[in-house]
Write a structure and sequence with these properties.
By secondary structure, this protein is of the alpha+beta class. About 30% of the residues lie in helices and about 25% in strands. Pfam families: DUF4031 (PF13223).
C-alpha cells in the first residue's frame, strides 16, 4: 500500500492543509485514512484534506512525501483524478464508513 502526501501549503479555515492520495484505488486511500483516524468528511472527490498538525502522523504511518505537483501527476496517471465540477456518478467518490 502506497499513499502519498504533499506539504501543508494550502490555506483554508485558518490553517494549512495537505492532500493525501493513492495512485492505486480509493479503497486503499480510505483504508489508510481510517487507520489514521481521519474523518470521512475530509474526503473531497479524489483526496483527503489533512491539516498541517497531522502531516507527521501520516508520514509516520507510511505516507510518502511528494510535491503538490507530483500529487496531481499521480492522480492523473492512475486515472483517479476527479476535477471540481464534474458530475459525480461513481459511487466510490463518496465514502461512508462501513460498520464491522
Amino acid at each position: 500500500m502506497t499513499v502519498y502526501i504533499d506539504p501543508p501549503t494550502w490555506p483554508g479555515h485558518g490553517r494549512m492543509w495537505s492532500h493525501l492520495v493513492s495512485d492505486v484505488s480509493y479503497e486503499e486511500l480510505h483504508l489508510f485514512a481510517a487507520a489514521l483516524g481521519v474523518p470521512p468528511r475530509a474526503f473531497e472527490r479524489d483526496h483527503y484534506d489533512l491539516p498541517s498538525h497531522r502531516y507527521a502522523d501520516a508520514v509516520t504511518a507510511g505516507a510518502v512525501e511528494v510535491s503538490s505537483r507530483e500529487v496531481v501527476r499521480l492522480l492523473h496517471v492512475s486515472g483517479l483524478r476527479r476535477p471540481k465540477g464534474r458530475a459525480q456518478t461513481d459511487p466510490s467518490w463518496s465514502w461512508v464508513p462501513r460498520s464491522s
